[in-house]
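Explain this one:

_____
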Amino acid sequence: MDKGILLAGNKSALLSAVEAETAKRAQGYALALIPNRFAGAEASQNDAPPASFPGRIPLDWNPGSPVSARSLILGARNRLGRVDEAVLVCSPPASACSVADLSLADLEVMAHDQIKGWFLLAKELCAYFMNQGSGILATVYCESGAKDDAGDLLGSAALSAFRSLSRSLLDTSAGGSSIMLSFASGDAGGQAVDDAGFASFISRHLEEGNRKSSGKLFRYGKHSLFK
């Protein structure tokens, strides 16, 4: 039976790479995107629509709405038959500004789209997999070049919140019916992370579906894995 996969994340090169690997593992999968709604956001290659894949089923998602989070999962289940795996890819758009120049509109976007949305979706997925009795919930984020970028006030804050969410999911995974995994780019030696290689690394571990790996943080880079 084909696995039902829900993929959600920011429009980015990393998400595109993860989607390419997902398309290899499933005949059909659901995709929900978080657009870059920060004021003054410029169109870039990362914000361009990702390449099309035959199995993609696009679904609408209003990240700041708890009703939308629940509807997203139900929509994925209705279109796929079931949801066995959910992969959350956090790669927030950079938004460099000083605190004095912070836009209230941008602050609302960060809080609702880039922070609240992930927490609501993770909460609903945990409940869904608990009721189903099985499932894999994976979080993905890229640390290299982001955590030391003091100028990226909003993007760094969003990434920090997602890391905290990921750690909480891992810490509460023991004894649960679902498998909780987290993937982060590790030390790339100051070089840009190879998104395709990172996505392939993620895909291999997800395909294994090893319950003994539940609760682990896998780092891609110089070190193979650790928590």
Q: What stands out?
A: The chain is about 40% helix and 20% strand. The longest strand covers residues 136-142. The radius of gyration is 17 Å. The first helix runs from residue 13 to 25.
